[in-house]
Amino acid sequence: MLRYWMLVVQLIELFVSALVHMLYGFYIFSSAVAGDLSQGLSDWYFKPNMDLVIKELQQQEPTTTTNSTNTGLKDLPPIVLVHGIFGFGKGRLGGLSYFAGAENKDERVLVPDLGSLTSIYDRSRELFYYLKGGQVDYGDEHSKACGHSQFGRMYERGNYPEWDEDHPIHFVGHSAGAQVVRVLQQMLADKAFKGYENTSESWVLSITSLSGAFNGTTRTYLDGMYPEDGKSLKSICLLQICRLGVIVYDWLDIPWLKAYYNFGFDHFNMSWKKKGISGLVDCLLGSAGPFSSMDWILPDLTIQGSLALNSHLQTFPNTYYFSYATKRTSKIMGITMPSSIFGIHPMLFIRVLQMSQWRHPSEISPPYKGYRDEDWQDNDGALNTISMTHPRFPIEHPSHFIQDDSTCESLRPGIWYYKIVEGDHILFIVNRERAGVQFDLIYDNIFERCRKQVFKRNPQMLPNEAQQ
Cellular component GO terms, alphabetically (predicted)? Predict the structure, then answer.
């Protein structure tokens, strides 16, 4: 009888969780549509007299100041903002900004649109060709192993085609986006891109992580990944609902809808035009598609998946690393609990509570030697705080904890400098008003620090650091 009631409670929890996520997704989607419609109507209603605009522009004389400013901007390394899971780049969801408009804080910012659910590997390849240009090449061996096309989206001209060791880039990654950048840097060091034999880790000037998924998250197990292997899905879980929805979405292949938002699985060719009804059935039953080959994001975000990635990822001696780890928990009488009720997004409050109480099944071997449940209790509703500070497992990388930017010593390359920030996982994205003054403090510091790290050989200082 007790087992029966436990099952009922779990099903109710699953229904509520699925409903909350769908409602939030619909809210984001409808907000983007409403914003686009409003902007369209405004542009149509207040359409300017183009003859007058052209006449005014012709009367304006270009100044040497403007020309010199443009030249200076062109010489600055671009800052590339890389979104996380379920994220989107510039051009998706209309005028909505994943980074809540932070890209407007600097003149040289790129916001690529990568697969929102594709694997870390696939997204890293996409990011390279987004910058350099050409057709995305996922690699022959990987493509055959995972059952998808070798080639993907075509970029007629890269967004930064001059990218090389003499023209390096700053990367800022949120959530899984931080791990994408690390894998890309390792690929550059390993010269993993066919036709580009001169790549190196020095193409990356700095990596800044915002709630970065370096060491996996226990959230994946709560949502349906088996803790035994970190790859397969439970029969009934939130991720199964997500899997079915994504397959149907891609199979329907509605052009205007996919142009608005795309999960990134086009290279799996799941469209009804290519697969038909039988292909849909195969994907739904798990015998075809990204979920059968495990070539999607969630296996990479388990602790086991992150350990496998980290086992061949390096922290390079000439690259600057900085990390903001978020936390929305505190200890009350020795018990880890959510630190606030109103300060946590409604979608994440229950998640924070669940993650703080997570216990690895005792009958299963721990994911790594020395694993302790208490180390993974602090979290932000999506990732565990221990996972966000710096790469720790299976080998801990050099790191230095920072309590306040103004008291930090000179930054040195090859070391992960990290801070703990009180906030949930989506505090610094999508909705700028939620973060308030913290939003500007975080992004202003990030952008200012990037602009001070133009030359690799000189020791850099954190923004607002007191002069010695």
Answer: extracellular region
Q: How far is CA 318 from CA 49, 185, 335, 410, in A?
A: 53, 12, 41, 15
What does the alpha-carbon distance between residue 434 and residue 238 come to, in Å, rounded to a whole number?
27
pLDDT tens, position by position, 98-131 = 999 999 999 999 999 999 999 999 999 999 999 9
Domain CATH for 22: 3.40.50.1820
CB within 8 Å of 439: residues ≥ 6 apart = 100, 102, 428, 432
Q: Is residue 2 part of a domain?
A: no
> How many structural domains does the chain have?
1
DSSP 76: S
Q: What secondary structure letter does DSSP report for 207?
A: E
Per the structure block, which two tokens stand in for 249? 């979405």
**DSSP codes joined into one string, 16-29:** HHHHHHHHHHHHHH
Longest dimension (CA), the chain: 84
Q: pTM (2 decimals)? A: 0.90
Residue 67 lies in a domain: no
For 304, the domain range is 14-38+79-452
The tokens describing 94, both together, are 């209309």
pLDDT tens-digit map of 14-30? 777 777 777 777 777 77
Residue 462 lies in a domain: no
Q: Give the position of tokens 């922290």.
A: 315
Render the burial of 353-392: b for 16+ CB within 10 Å, e for the rest. Answer: bbbbebebeeeeeebeeeeeeeebbbbbbbbbbbbbbbbb
* β 399-401/416-422 pair status: parallel
* C-alpha to C-alpha distance for 144 and 111, rounded to whole angstroms: 30
In a domain, 120, yes or no: yes
Question: What are the residue ranges in the chain where pLDDT is below 50?
Answer: 53, 57, 62-71, 456-468
